[in-house]
Amino acid sequence: MELPDLFVKRMHDLLADEAEGVLKALAEEPVVSVRLNPAKCTFGCAGDSVPWATDGFYLDGRRAFTFDPLFHAGCYYVQEASSMFLEQVVRQYIAEPVTALDLCAAPGGKSTLLRSVLPEGSLLVSNEVIPARAQVLMENMVKWGHPDGIVTSGTPADFGALPSFFDVIVADVPCSGEGMFRKDPVAVAEWSEENVETCWRRSRGIIADCWEALKEGGLLVYSTCTFNLKEDEENVRWICEELGAEALPLESLPEWGITGNLLGQTDFFPVYRFLPGRTRGEGFFLAVLRKLSVPKASMPKKQKNRSNSKAQPIPQECKNWLCDAASYEWKSEKNTIVALSERCVAAFPALAQQVKILYAGVAVSEWKGRDVVPTTSLALSNVLCREAFPIVEVSYSEALAYLRKEALTLSSDAPRGYVLLTFRGVPLGFVKNVGNRANNLYPSEWRIRTTHLPESEVRVLY
Q1: Does the predicted TM-score (pTM) go above 0.70?
Q2: Residue 432 lies in a domain
């Protein structure tokens, strides 16, 4: 990989004697890591532990994750190790339930992490403004399975019209991507001084637009996957001076190899840099900021009526499919029956005024005429009542066929009707067994599209 000459010069100016080590590391193979879902995963991982992440593990190389049914079941997420450092913010500063926003959330790495480590009772809003990326985010959050979540598609300014709504905002802002050069050749090809200028200005606009949505005393987690001072330290300083915030320290161990503020001692505030070759991961930058200023009053926009469908009564059988069903508010909208937790119900009306809500709570079932059909979202939810359905364990090849949305034939003694399929004991989704075949209910848009078959079973977890 040939790095841009100007980028190399900037790295020498930024890191001095340490630059050569980082540049050499950028020519090596990227680090591969995964993070387990503690709510689903009863398996172990053979790799070394990521020291700053409870459920993070390094792998010895990239795997064909597409062909691992447990990946599709939400047992783990393929996430860059350095970005798992976000867990330390939660562990050190968030002890009580909060309402949190992951502002630039797609494809879902930080949102799935937050959903695992935030205190129970917290609500997480995961947002992505680009529609296609928002669909990927929704899929990953559904597979992760936690019921206290809402997936939205809105701009930072949309959220800024909700004054003092969030206790925590995580903003992994779009950046020049210097820290991802060894993983993403496109980032190398697109790098330029002009792009760096565009990115640091855009990042300031994103933070300024959403700033009023953060409560006084709330936390902003600002992060990038780039190295330069303009997008990193200088933007953090701008947030502190112009918007009214203080940078907070995080405890870390020397052996983690994290680098601090590169502006110098005369302009010191705590920030956390991950440099390839020094830390075991890709390039990453993070700062934690506490909001000091009082937000201005702002009136939400007039609420839009996004649904003209007439609500239908909720069949009791649907409520039997969910654990602790009485603790949820049940709604029937657009042919889908949804169960919303108390936190979701409280936040839903205000959010619906400002942003497009793509998914909330648990989508339990869909109406097909007068019948209700259990959804894949229900199968993958952590609050599925497994006793409500007959269960059939499938083989590896059958699991891949199911995930390709192919028709299956179950054994002759398999019960008729809706059957929950599991692989290694983990739910994958539903089929409707009609005897001579089992109709596949897996979402078409999630299916494995390649017809290639691996030579042997792909196993990440043991």
Answers
A1: yes
A2: no
